[in-house]
């Protein structure tokens, strides 16, 4: 196939036929064609796509050690940011419509980068590390009245962090780092008469 036939074939496929009305003679003049600028020649090398990791403005999440997270909870920066409130207290979920979805999002962090505009309280602050050793953080997610873990609908934590939170609290209870009430057992003494 010659270059001229290739160009002719490509151009014929990219033209859009139109009829034009001549204002001088008052008659219609044949067909005028307009070139479409989006097509490319087949032999022209394509540019390689530029890969961006979740946008250029977003920074990758850095893994912080647990010891640093424990020190952060006693720091002045933490007190300025959260005060005496739990980390989830001032968080407001962002959703479409007037009725919030029953479940929170699956995860806020994808491929090591915050993928949402409004991440959950644990994903937005990289110094809040869930670990059985980080007792002060875990106690913020336990109800002081019942001793139960607060629901994700109350705290606004994403599903992935909520699972990690439940695991960390259960391990901390097993190790004796968090005290909890043992449920009262009632026995049926009629079996022993």
Automatic annotation (TrEMBL):
<dbReference type="GO" id="GO:0003735">
    <property type="term" value="F:structural constituent of ribosome"/>
</dbReference>
<protein>
    <recommendedName>
        <fullName>Small ribosomal subunit protein mS40</fullName>
    </recommendedName>
</protein>
<keyword id="KW-0496">Mitochondrion</keyword>
<keyword id="KW-0687">Ribonucleoprotein</keyword>
<dbReference type="GO" id="GO:0005763">
    <property type="term" value="C:mitochondrial small ribosomal subunit"/>
</dbReference>
<keyword id="KW-0597">Phosphoprotein</keyword>
<comment type="similarity">
    <text>Belongs to the bacterial ribosomal protein bS18 family. Mitochondrion-specific ribosomal protein mS40 subfamily.</text>
</comment>
<dbReference type="InterPro" id="IPR036870">
    <property type="entry name" value="Ribosomal_bS18_sf"/>
</dbReference>
<dbReference type="InterPro" id="IPR040054">
    <property type="entry name" value="MRPS18B"/>
</dbReference>
<dbReference type="InterPro" id="IPR001648">
    <property type="entry name" value="Ribosomal_bS18"/>
</dbReference>
<dbReference type="GO" id="GO:0032543">
    <property type="term" value="P:mitochondrial translation"/>
</dbReference>
<dbReference type="Pfam" id="PF01084">
    <property type="entry name" value="Ribosomal_S18"/>
</dbReference>
<keyword id="KW-0809">Transit peptide</keyword>
<keyword id="KW-0689">Ribosomal protein</keyword>
